[in-house]
Specification:
With 136 residues, the protein is of the alpha/beta class. The chain contains seven helices and four strands. It has a single domain, classed as 5'-nuclease (Rossmann fold, 3-Layer(aba) Sandwich), CATH 3.40.50.1010.
């Protein structure tokens, strides 16, 4: 099952000072170098590029993302993302518009979301979102 990797994990993977014991980063690296597959979407690329200002870093990121399968949101994905955000809001979980769209794309595509963002973990208790969790 492909992983949809959230910006939170990508940004940790690209930082020089990432702590060595981040399981999500380990899973990303193992998936990229093994048999698994990673998918992404334009919003994740946008968020990531906005966080890395040096042109050289942006070039590295763009080159890496060129090899990934991209999910293009449909009209229906945007409509369903609003439903996701509203459903979460009703139970006290606040998902921003971008996060709601990412959650919708993961659910619609049958992907597991790889993230360190606690809001996605909270949301997964109330919607059909699969979020990777460390074993144990």
């Amino acid at each position: 099952m492909p992983l949809l990797v959230d910006t939170s994990v990508w940004s940790l993977a690209y930082r020089r000072d990432t702590p060595p014991d981040v399981p999500e980063v380990d899973v990303l690296r193992r998936t990229l170098t093994g048999d698994g597959s990673v998918v992404t979407t334009g919003m994740i690329l946008l968020e990531l590029l906005r966080g890395f200002v040096p042109a050289r870093a942006q070039e590295t990121i763009r080159a890496a993302f060129d090899s990934l399968a991209f999910i293009d949101p449909t009209h229906e994905d945007y409509v369903e993302a609003a439903t996701v955000a509203n459903s979460c809001s009703r139970v006290g979980v606040q998902l921003g518009s971008v996060d709601a769209l990412i959650a919708q794309l993961a659910m619609a595509g049958g992907h597991t979301l790889l993230t360190t963002d606690k809001d996605f973990h909270l949301a997964s208790r109330h919607i059909g979102l699969r979020v990777w969790r460390p074993p144990g």
